[in-house]
Amino acid sequence: MSATDKKRGAAQASLEFIPPGTTLGVGTGSTVNFLIELLPGLRDNIDRIVSSSRATTALLEEQGFEVLTLNQVNGELDVYIDGADETTKRLHLIKGGGGALTREKVLAGAARRFVCIVDDSKFVGMLGKFPLPIEVLPMAQEAVGRHLLKLRGQPIWREGFVTDNGNHILDVHDLQIANPVELEDRLNRIPGVVTVGIFARRPADVLLIASDDGVRELRA
Ligand code: 5RP
Protein backbone atom coordinates (compact mmCIF):
# COMPACT_ATOMS: atom_id res chain seq x y z
CA MET A 1 0.00 0.00 0.00
CA SER A 2 1.37 3.45 -0.84
CA ALA A 3 2.04 6.12 1.80
CA THR A 4 -0.77 8.13 0.25
CA ASP A 5 -3.25 5.27 0.73
CA LYS A 6 -2.12 4.84 4.32
CA LYS A 7 -2.58 8.53 5.06
CA ARG A 8 -6.06 8.40 3.56
CA GLY A 9 -6.82 5.29 5.66
CA ALA A 10 -5.73 6.95 8.90
CA ALA A 11 -7.82 10.03 8.06
CA GLN A 12 -10.86 7.84 7.31
CA ALA A 13 -10.46 6.02 10.64
CA SER A 14 -10.49 9.31 12.56
CA LEU A 15 -14.04 10.11 11.41
CA GLU A 16 -15.47 7.91 14.17
CA PHE A 17 -14.11 10.45 16.69
CA ILE A 18 -16.46 13.14 15.35
CA PRO A 19 -19.89 12.42 16.88
CA PRO A 20 -22.90 14.77 16.44
CA GLY A 21 -22.45 18.19 18.07
CA THR A 22 -18.64 18.22 17.80
CA THR A 23 -16.56 21.37 18.05
CA LEU A 24 -13.66 20.20 15.90
CA GLY A 25 -10.07 21.41 15.61
CA VAL A 26 -8.28 20.57 12.37
CA GLY A 27 -4.50 20.25 12.07
CA THR A 28 -2.20 20.87 9.13
CA GLY A 29 -0.41 18.70 6.57
CA SER A 30 -0.88 16.13 3.84
CA THR A 31 -2.53 13.53 6.14
CA VAL A 32 -5.01 16.05 7.48
CA ASN A 33 -5.73 17.18 3.92
CA PHE A 34 -7.32 13.76 3.33
CA LEU A 35 -9.46 14.32 6.41
CA ILE A 36 -10.56 17.70 5.07
CA GLU A 37 -11.72 16.03 1.84
CA LEU A 38 -13.85 13.64 3.91
CA LEU A 39 -15.38 16.22 6.28
CA PRO A 40 -18.25 17.35 4.02
CA GLY A 41 -19.73 13.85 4.48
CA LEU A 42 -19.90 14.52 8.26
CA ARG A 43 -21.17 18.09 8.06
CA ASP A 44 -24.23 17.33 10.22
CA ASN A 45 -21.99 16.15 13.08
CA ILE A 46 -19.80 19.24 13.07
CA ASP A 47 -21.20 22.06 15.14
CA ARG A 48 -18.20 24.38 14.87
CA ILE A 49 -14.76 24.16 13.32
CA VAL A 50 -11.39 25.75 14.17
CA SER A 51 -8.21 25.59 12.08
CA SER A 52 -4.51 25.38 12.96
CA SER A 53 -3.16 27.30 9.95
CA ARG A 54 -3.96 29.58 7.06
CA ALA A 55 -3.44 26.65 4.68
CA THR A 56 -6.00 24.50 6.50
CA THR A 57 -8.45 27.40 6.76
CA ALA A 58 -8.29 27.89 2.98
CA LEU A 59 -9.02 24.19 2.36
CA LEU A 60 -11.88 24.10 4.86
CA GLU A 61 -13.43 27.18 3.30
CA GLU A 62 -13.18 25.54 -0.14
CA GLN A 63 -15.28 22.73 1.33
CA GLY A 64 -17.87 25.30 2.43
CA PHE A 65 -17.09 25.41 6.16
CA GLU A 66 -17.19 28.64 8.12
CA VAL A 67 -13.96 28.57 10.14
CA LEU A 68 -14.09 30.10 13.62
CA THR A 69 -11.26 31.28 15.84
CA LEU A 70 -10.45 29.45 19.07
CA ASN A 71 -11.70 32.51 20.93
CA GLN A 72 -15.07 32.27 19.19
CA VAL A 73 -15.54 28.76 20.62
CA ASN A 74 -14.54 29.94 24.12
CA GLY A 75 -11.10 28.34 23.92
CA GLU A 76 -12.39 24.76 23.99
CA LEU A 77 -12.50 21.94 21.46
CA ASP A 78 -14.15 18.56 21.79
CA VAL A 79 -11.70 16.90 19.42
CA TYR A 80 -8.50 17.93 17.69
CA ILE A 81 -7.29 15.79 14.77
CA ASP A 82 -3.78 16.24 13.38
CA GLY A 83 -0.85 14.39 11.84
CA ALA A 84 2.73 14.14 13.11
CA ASP A 85 6.28 13.82 11.83
CA GLU A 86 7.25 11.21 14.42
CA THR A 87 5.44 9.36 17.18
CA THR A 88 6.33 6.82 19.85
CA LYS A 89 4.22 4.18 21.55
CA ARG A 90 3.79 6.62 24.46
CA LEU A 91 2.09 8.98 21.96
CA HIS A 92 4.81 11.61 22.32
CA LEU A 93 5.17 13.46 19.02
CA ILE A 94 7.43 15.60 16.90
CA LYS A 95 5.37 18.08 14.91
CA GLY A 96 6.03 21.17 12.84
CA GLY A 97 7.34 19.78 9.56
CA GLY A 98 4.74 22.01 7.94
CA GLY A 99 5.67 24.92 10.20
CA ALA A 100 2.28 25.18 11.93
CA LEU A 101 3.45 23.86 15.31
CA THR A 102 2.48 26.85 17.46
CA ARG A 103 -1.18 26.97 16.52
CA GLU A 104 -1.23 23.17 16.49
CA LYS A 105 0.05 23.09 20.07
CA VAL A 106 -2.52 25.64 21.15
CA LEU A 107 -5.37 23.62 19.63
CA ALA A 108 -4.05 20.33 21.04
CA GLY A 109 -3.91 21.96 24.48
CA ALA A 110 -7.49 23.22 24.13
CA ALA A 111 -8.90 19.84 23.10
CA ARG A 112 -10.63 17.33 25.36
CA ARG A 113 -9.35 14.64 22.99
CA PHE A 114 -6.36 14.78 20.61
CA VAL A 115 -6.46 12.19 17.84
CA CYS A 116 -3.22 11.81 15.87
CA ILE A 117 -3.31 10.25 12.40
CA VAL A 118 -0.15 8.83 10.82
CA ASP A 119 1.18 6.22 8.43
CA ASP A 120 3.53 3.64 9.92
CA SER A 121 6.68 5.39 8.61
CA LYS A 122 6.17 7.94 11.42
CA PHE A 123 6.28 5.35 14.22
CA VAL A 124 9.71 5.31 15.95
CA GLY A 125 11.36 3.87 19.04
CA MET A 126 12.87 7.23 20.06
CA LEU A 127 12.09 10.74 18.82
CA GLY A 128 14.79 12.77 17.08
CA LYS A 129 15.62 11.31 13.71
CA PHE A 130 13.24 13.84 12.16
CA PRO A 131 14.87 17.26 12.71
CA LEU A 132 13.05 18.98 15.57
CA PRO A 133 11.24 22.16 14.43
CA ILE A 134 11.43 25.10 16.83
CA GLU A 135 9.57 28.34 16.13
CA VAL A 136 11.64 31.35 17.23
CA LEU A 137 11.30 35.10 17.26
CA PRO A 138 13.28 36.33 14.23
CA MET A 139 15.44 38.66 16.39
CA ALA A 140 16.39 35.73 18.66
CA GLN A 141 17.25 33.22 15.94
CA GLU A 142 21.04 33.38 16.37
CA ALA A 143 20.88 33.45 20.17
CA VAL A 144 18.55 30.44 20.29
CA GLY A 145 20.83 28.67 17.81
CA ARG A 146 23.80 29.12 20.18
CA HIS A 147 21.84 27.56 23.07
CA LEU A 148 20.93 24.61 20.85
CA LEU A 149 24.57 24.02 19.88
CA LYS A 150 25.41 23.78 23.60
CA LEU A 151 22.80 21.01 23.84
CA ARG A 152 24.59 19.23 20.95
CA GLY A 153 21.82 19.95 18.45
CA GLN A 154 22.60 21.23 14.96
CA PRO A 155 20.11 24.01 14.20
CA ILE A 156 19.40 24.78 10.54
CA TRP A 157 17.39 27.88 9.69
CA ARG A 158 14.41 27.05 7.44
CA GLU A 159 15.43 29.79 5.07
CA GLY A 160 12.70 31.79 3.36
CA PHE A 161 9.96 30.32 5.56
CA VAL A 162 7.85 32.61 7.75
CA THR A 163 5.23 31.09 10.05
CA ASP A 164 1.60 32.24 10.20
CA ASN A 165 2.70 34.14 13.32
CA GLY A 166 5.50 36.03 11.53
CA ASN A 167 8.30 33.97 13.09
CA HIS A 168 11.16 31.76 11.89
CA ILE A 169 11.78 28.01 12.20
CA LEU A 170 15.00 26.30 13.27
CA ASP A 171 15.13 22.59 12.35
CA VAL A 172 17.38 20.93 14.92
CA HIS A 173 19.31 17.87 13.73
CA ASP A 174 21.16 15.22 15.75
CA LEU A 175 19.08 15.37 18.94
CA GLN A 176 18.60 12.09 20.80
CA ILE A 177 15.30 12.69 22.54
CA ALA A 178 15.38 10.03 25.25
CA ASN A 179 13.27 12.12 27.65
CA PRO A 180 10.80 14.16 25.57
CA VAL A 181 9.04 15.83 28.52
CA GLU A 182 12.32 17.03 30.04
CA LEU A 183 13.69 18.30 26.70
CA GLU A 184 10.43 20.06 25.83
CA ASP A 185 10.57 21.92 29.16
CA ARG A 186 14.24 22.73 28.77
CA LEU A 187 13.92 24.11 25.23
CA ASN A 188 10.82 26.09 26.20
CA ARG A 189 12.93 27.98 28.74
CA ILE A 190 15.34 29.39 26.11
CA PRO A 191 14.52 33.09 25.64
CA GLY A 192 13.18 33.70 22.14
CA VAL A 193 11.71 30.23 21.68
CA VAL A 194 8.05 30.53 20.77
CA THR A 195 7.17 26.85 20.45
CA VAL A 196 9.05 23.55 20.52
CA GLY A 197 7.85 20.83 18.17
CA ILE A 198 7.96 18.16 20.89
CA PHE A 199 4.40 17.32 21.95
CA ALA A 200 5.06 15.36 25.16
CA ARG A 201 3.60 17.51 27.96
CA ARG A 202 0.38 17.26 25.99
CA PRO A 203 0.73 14.04 23.96
CA ALA A 204 -1.96 12.59 21.73
CA ASP A 205 -4.77 10.70 23.47
CA VAL A 206 -5.42 8.39 20.54
CA LEU A 207 -2.99 7.38 17.80
CA LEU A 208 -4.28 5.90 14.54
CA ILE A 209 -1.43 4.24 12.64
CA ALA A 210 -2.09 3.04 9.11
CA SER A 211 0.00 0.18 7.71
CA ASP A 212 -0.41 -2.54 5.06
CA ASP A 213 -2.43 -4.49 7.65
CA GLY A 214 -4.99 -1.72 8.23
CA VAL A 215 -5.33 0.96 10.90
CA ARG A 216 -4.18 0.21 14.45
CA GLU A 217 -5.34 2.26 17.41
CA LEU A 218 -3.11 3.09 20.40
CA ARG A 219 -4.31 5.00 23.46
CA ALA A 220 -2.31 6.91 26.04
C1 5RP B 1 2.57 20.54 10.42
C2 5RP B 1 2.67 19.24 11.14
C3 5RP B 1 2.17 18.03 10.43
O1 5RP B 1 1.22 17.40 11.23
C4 5RP B 1 3.31 17.10 10.20
O2 5RP B 1 4.34 17.79 9.51
C5 5RP B 1 2.89 15.86 9.40
O3 5RP B 1 2.59 16.24 8.10
P1 5RP B 1 2.14 15.21 6.98
O4 5RP B 1 0.77 14.73 7.37
O5 5RP B 1 2.17 16.02 5.72
O6 5RP B 1 3.15 14.09 6.97
O7 5RP B 1 3.11 19.14 12.24
O8 5RP B 1 3.16 21.57 11.14
What does it look like?
By secondary structure, the protein is α/β, with parallel strands linked by helices. It folds into two domains: 3-123 and 201-219, Rossmann fold (3-Layer(aba) Sandwich); 132-196, Alpha-Beta Plaits, CATH 3.30.70.260. The chain has six helices and 14 strands. It has helices at residues 3-14, 30-38, 54-62, 101-110, 141-150, 180-188, and strands at residues 22-26, 46-51, 67-68, 77-82, 86-87, 93-94, 111-119, 132-136, 154-157, 168-173, 193-196, 198-199, 206-211, 214-219. The radius of gyration is 17 Å and the shape is globular. Bound molecules: ribulose-5-phosphate. Residues 27-31, 82-85, 95-101, 104 line the site of ribulose-5-phosphate.
